[in-house]
Amino acid sequence: SDSKLLATESLNTYWNYNKQSLINYMKESLYGIRGIITNSCNEPLDAMIWVIGHDEENDSSMVFTDPVVGDYQRLIEPGSYDVVASAEGYINDTVFSINVAKGNTNWINFMLTSKDDSILLKTNKETVEDTLFFDEISIQQLIIYNDSNAINTDYSIELETEETWVDINKATGTIYLNKNDTIQVRFYTDLLTAGYYYNNILITSADCIIDTIPIHLVVKDTISSEITPKQIIDTLWAGENAQYEIIIKNNGMLSLNYNILKDPISSWLSLNKVSGNLPITECDTLTATINTQGYGFGELNCSLIVEKENSTSDTLAVSIFVKDTIEYTIYPESIADTLKQDTVVVYNLIVENTGYGNLKYTTNIVFPTKSNDFWVSTTDTVGVISSENKDTIKVNLNTSNLNSGDYICALWFYENSGKETLIPINIHIKQVQSIESFSNIQNVRLYPNPFKDDLTLECHLFEPEDITLSIYNTYGSLLFRKVLAVNNNLILLHMSEIFNIHDLSKAIYLIQISTDMNQTTLKVIKN
Fold first, then answer.
1. What's 22's DSSP letter?
2. What contacts 250, CB < 8 A, 6 or more positions away?
3. In angstroms, how far is CA 482 from the centroid of its own chain?
4. Candidate CATH numbers 2.60.40.10, 2.30.30.100, 2.40.30.10, 3.20.20.70; the one for domain 328-429
5. H-helix or E-strand containing 346?
6. Rounded to 5 degrees, what are φ and ψ at 503?
7. What are the distances in angstroms from CA 496 to CA 356, 444, 506, 524?
8. Cα–Cα distance between 385 and 327 in angstroms, integer?
9. Which conformational region is residue 496 in: left (phi greater than 0), alpha (psi within -120 to 50 degrees), or beta?
10. Do 121-220 and 441-526 share a fold?
């Protein structure tokens, strides 16, 4: 009926029209999967039903039981499903491959086990291990405890790999509440040689939980020794001496005769004793002396081989890094700046003595080209710096008598033992425009820049005159110089025609073009 309020006499008629449809609709809610979830005491649980591969956390498609009676109803399309029942404080249970047909109901009940009632086995050892000599027998006891609320539990025990050198005295057992069971693990070394042997004990409880107990067996030779330390590693200054204690212990079953060899034979390493006889359990204490006098910085390596009468040996590695007593750092590593004419600037060079002894040094300024003006000087030309201390060398630059252009030189730092360092100094003097200043060298170009195999020089001379072409590296070292006769105003020169420029290594270079009155310097890069 499409009438909201029916007449009283029409109610029975319309009920009979719709009764069966309503009942069929109510029956649809019972199809799918339904059941009851209880604990081991048959008490209803507040639990969740989760369909694996179907339900998602973010869409709340899982269903929950009525906690009063423990029942659930899961409407679902026909198909095959794996269903998980879970409740707080209980172990999850899963029923696989539930086949749901159209118009049918699958009754799936769950009885969940409390986590407090789950089976828990513990052992008195995390590892079963022993150290034996050849032809010995040993028995280790492994105790298994029932540390759960289960009244009793069955278990099985086995070796992961069957071996002739180890066995256990039983394969199965039952442990009652708060009781334990003792397993005997027997070792046999009569068929073994000296070395290390491994296996595992697998304990499987009634709920199919497997615990793994590792087995470690060390078989020692009847003639056996232990050396402490296993290696000697140290860092010493050149000329320094050091002593190290070496302990050789007889941990075999017979007296120990030993000899010590050096491989390779090394004069920097000496021992106060190279042979001996040790009764059982006795020790020898040796002193190894290392003398680095006469050795330069670097590594010294040697092996001490302790040979025993049964043709076996132990090796102790010795590795010494020798530091040079003369070590220093200079900061900054170079000086480069752009200055104006008539300027005085002071730069600080910090020299730190990082070596072992005193650092005695001399400094000097090295000019790559002649200069009529002494535009660079230092405050300290000699000095002494004690270990772990610093000194400051002041470098003074005075551009009062310099024309615009590039000027290069180097500070030469010489240490009295022969070590030396060059600190490049590169300054550029800005050109000051003046109607009185005039350069005969105009429009200088070097291309391509960067270059690889050849470099082209192009420039104009206001009046033709001979030019001097020079090439320097950034340390100020002169690599090439040649005087070129010029009869024209235009200079166009391929550098490879006068110099093997393609043989230069990859770096930055300075190309200087000079006449009697003028000079121009440009930087180029070799790729």
1. H
2. 224, 225, 256, 278, 279, 280, 281, 282, 283
3. 55
4. 2.60.40.10
5. strand 344-353
6. -85, -10
7. 50, 18, 16, 15
8. 11
9. alpha
10. yes
CATH topology of domain 8-116: Immunoglobulin-like (2.60.40)
Tell me the backbone φ, ψ of residue 362, rounded to 5 degrees.
Answer: -135, 140
Max Cα separation, the chain? 134
Q: Are strands 382-385 and 405-415 parallel, antiparallel or unpaired?
A: unpaired
Q: Is 391 exposed, middle or buried (0-12, 13-18, 19+ CB in 10 A)?
A: middle
Report whether the peptide linkage leading into residue 78 is cis, meaning its omega lies within 30 degrees of zero: no
Kindly state the tokens that stand for 486: 């010029």
Which tokens in the block code for residue 255?
């007296």
Residue 318's φ and ψ, nearest 5 degrees, are -120, 120
Cis peptide before 214 (omega within 30 of 0): no
Residue 16, SS3?
helix
The DSSP string of 498-525 is TS-GGGSPSEEEEEEEE-SS-EEEEEEE
The DSSP call for residue 5 is S
| Domain map (residue ranges) of the chain | 8-116, 121-220, 225-323, 328-429, 441-526
Map tokens 């052992």 to a residue. 123
CATH of 225-323, one of 3.40.50.300, 3.40.50.720, 3.40.50.10350, 2.60.40.10: 2.60.40.10
What is the architecture of the domain spanning 441-526?
A: Sandwich (2.60)
Residue 20's Cβ-count burial label (10 Å; 0-12, 13-18, 19+) is exposed
Q: What is the pTM of this model?
A: 0.38
**Contact yes or no for 112/37 (Cβ under 8 A):** yes
Question: Is CATH 3.40.720.10 the right assignment for the domain spanning 121-220?
Answer: no
User: Residue-wise pLDDT tens for the chain (527 aa)?
Assistant: 677 788 888 888 888 888 888 888 888 778 899 999 998 778 899 999 999 988 887 777 889 999 899 999 998 889 999 999 999 888 889 999 999 998 889 999 999 887 765 667 889 999 999 999 888 899 999 999 887 766 678 889 999 999 999 999 999 999 887 789 999 999 999 888 888 999 999 998 876 778 899 999 999 877 788 899 999 999 988 778 899 999 999 988 788 899 999 998 889 999 999 999 999 889 999 999 999 887 777 899 999 999 988 778 889 999 999 887 788 999 999 999 888 877 888 999 999 998 877 888 999 888 765 454 578 888 778 899 988 899 999 998 888 778 788 888 888 898 877 788 989 998 888 765 443 445 778 888 889 988 888 899 998 888 888 889 998 887 777 889 999 888 888 888 898 888 888 888 888 888 888 887 778 888 888 88
